[in-house]
Amino acid sequence: MISAQRAGKRLKQCGDQDDWPDGLRHTEPVLCDYGGGMRKSGEMKNGYLLLLCNSLGATMEVSYLEKFSGQRVDAIIQIGGKVDELVSDTSYVENINRVANTTPILITGKLDGADCYQVNIDEGQSMELLMQFLIENGHQDIALMGGRDNVKSTLDKRLRYRQMLRKYGIPVREEYIVDGSSYDIESGSAAMYRFIREDHPMPSAIIAIMTSRR
């Protein structure tokens, strides 16, 4: 979750990840890149200071909403977390709408009933392009590793994955769709080890669903 304030209302400046305090240091480098890009644009071009917070769960998300609202920030951006849930939490929607009455909020996911700005990736189209590339380059045994069906972005990817296999006449092998406990490196590694231990035929290509990279 990211907040922005005009210079002069200084909270805590968000620098490189190594400069962030332990409680705010983000563990997902892809999201660090997002924050770094927004910081560069917001601070250098428009005079804003940015604060990046790793919510680490629903309770902290609500807490940060309250904190940012109380500190009268100029805007809030939420990436992931509660806004990625397949079934929207009505109490969280109410919290978002209450804060959005006075503070602009932008989310990067699906939150039914939320009266705020939204920017969404077309997960289905991205999976379609990837599957088309792999299949047209000779791959038919394609595994989809990681993610959970209760997260909308993952569900959209899995639905289009199955659709593209059927489109090209390739049987859908459910054992090639492997759940992960979360969206980090460790979860992806554990899912792959579990797949190997179950002694399935090895795929020729693997698509990993995650938000981290190293």
Characterise the protein shown here.
The chain is an alpha/beta fold and 214 residues long. It is 40% helix and 14% strand. The chain has a five-stranded mixed beta sheet with strand order 2-1-3-4-5. It has a three-stranded parallel beta sheet with strand order 7-6-8, covered by helices on one side. Helix 3 links the parallel strand 3 and strand 4 (105-107). Helix 2 packs parallel to helix 3 and helix 4 runs parallel beside helix 5.
Task: Please specify the SSE layout and strand pairing.
Layout: E1 2-6, H1 29-46, E2 48-52, H2 58-70, E3 75-78, H3 90-100, E4 105-107, E5 117-118, H4 123-136, E6 142-145, H5 152-167, E7 177-178, H6 185-197, E8 205-208
Parallel strand pairs: 3-4, 4-5, 6-7, 6-8
Antiparallel strand pairs: 1-2, 1-3
Task: Kindly summarize this structure in a few lines.
With 214 residues, the chain is of the alpha/beta class. The protein has six helices and eight strands, in the order E-H-E-H-E-H-E-E-H-E-H-E-H-E.
Keywords:
214 residues, alpha/beta, 6 helices, 40% helix, elongated
Mean pLDDT across the residues is 79
Helix/strand order: EHEHEHEEHEHEHE
The total of beta strands comes to 8
Strand residues, percent: 5-15%
Distance between the termini: 21 Å
Structural class by sheet pairing and helices: alpha/beta
Name the assembly state. single chain
Q: State the low-pLDDT regions, or none.
A: 6-27
Helix content bin: 25-40%
Shape: elongated
Radius of gyration: 19 Å
Strand order across the largest sheet: 2-1-3-4-5
Counted by DSSP, the helix tally is 6
